[in-house]
């Protein structure tokens, strides 16, 4: 019998790849023709105008919604072909931190982080304890294990949510607005932590955020979503120097540009009943 060769993951294969993906809800496409590759070990930031489709793209990446056209691949495998068990297995490799990273208010910090381990594994209590304390240590909160969510600050709560998102040692972590509502110091700490955890634990991360300064500081790659498409992608530096007027307006935080400040309307003089001639 020929010797079996061990299958090693191909590090060159992107962890996630979208090929010409269109996606949306109830038959209505929100995004079209999206091509995106997510390199292992990298941090991708999704930026763009409100309602432009960043969260929708995050859902397509994690197969919470199925593409209407094109392919979404995880580890080289088209997720459309996965049965229930296959999808479950893929999801277990993804950690998620959604807006505000809400904690269970009736569970203490330790139990919040232990929750996914208890839900998804049958590990003995001693191992759950070690894993939870390791994750809490990684976010600097091993000493806060017995506190209730009402007893910790917003920034600490976000770090607990982060520890919970990585409790199952995922390959990919998805963050939807991880900085929302944080003061500038906690925001900086959380951003740095996301990058450090990514590198120390060999994760791959996707961050949806409006905080361009912090996001650009920690991302390897940025994709800007607007008008139903990924209109630009590249390194933070490339986006900063983009000549695209839409990217310039967004990254430069200019109030007017291709995205108009005013909704289209009849001329202002007409609305106020002024004819333009002196009375
Ligand atoms: N579950 C849903 N069902 C139907 N339409 C949805 C759903 N979720 C989002 N949408 C629509 O999809 C569009 C894109 O929304 P999405 O939340 O992806 O944008 P976003 O860029 O993340 O916005 P924001 O920055 O404001 O969070 C919006 O028009 C929204 O109304």
From TrEMBL:
The protein, known as: ABC transporter ATP-binding protein
Domain (ABC transporter): residue spans on this chain: 16-252
Keywords: ATP-binding, Cell membrane, Membrane, Nucleotide-binding, Transport
Organism domain of life: Bacteria
One matching Pfam family: ABC_tran
Alphabetized GO MF terms: ATP binding
InterPro entries attached to this UniProt entry: AAA+_ATPase, ABC_transporter-like_ATP-bd, ABC_transporter-like_CS, P-loop_NTPase
Cross-referenced CDD domains: ABC_Org_Solvent_Resistant
Signal peptide: none
